[in-house]
Amino acid sequence: MKFDSKKDLLFTLIFGGVVLFLLYLLIFKIFIVGNFTPMDYFIAAVLTIVITYLIWSYSDTWYLIKGDKLIYRSGPIRGGIDILSISKLTLGKTLWVGLVKPATSRKGIIIHYNAYDELYISPQSNEALAKALKTINNKIIIETWGSNSNS
Fold first, then answer.
1. Which long-range contacts (CB under 8 A, 24 or more apart) does 76-82 make?
2. pTM of this structure
3. Alpha-carbon span 44 to 81, nearest angstrom
4. Where in the chain are the domains?
5. 61-66 and 2-4: which strand pairing?
């Protein structure tokens, strides 16, 4: 079962703004200033890689439940976690810090798995993904951010 990532306005503005700014820097140097030095070629290559990474991550983020694995993909970032190792889901909260955040929206799901690991994702429907995970591992505690009710 595949779940696409939700894209909210804040993330769209941030991704779009950064991409447009980097494109502006790249185009300004190529067409306006000219006079490429060897360092400019390096900077242009780095800017092109960063722009490509941002567009790829924004447009190709999704989640897949396959057997007892939750597989995630966000551009070149790919991974999976064992659904049976998930202890808790926190719905509707944003995880601002951490290394792996294959998400394009706020108010997604924080997945707590293994002893101390967390993964932040942002499916179109938090509830649908949580329900699908709970059918595979009924020991998962589902916590909705801002409420005290657990399922």
1. 77/102, 81/111, 81/113, 81/117, 81/119, 82/113
2. 0.82
3. 36
4. 2-59, 81-144
5. antiparallel
Residue appearing with tokens 């970032």: 77
Question: Nearest 5°: CA angle at 135, between 62 and 1?
Answer: 30
Give the single-character DSSP code of 55. Answer: H
Q: Per-residue pLDDT tens for 73-106?
A: 999 999 999 999 999 999 988 877 766 678 888 8
What secondary structure letter does DSSP report for 68?
A: T
Residues 24-35 pLDDT 10s: 988 877 767 667
Q: Is the pLDDT of residue 39 over 90?
A: no
Q: Identify the DSSP state of 114.
A: T
Beta strands in 9-82 (DSSP E): 61-66, 69-74, 77-82
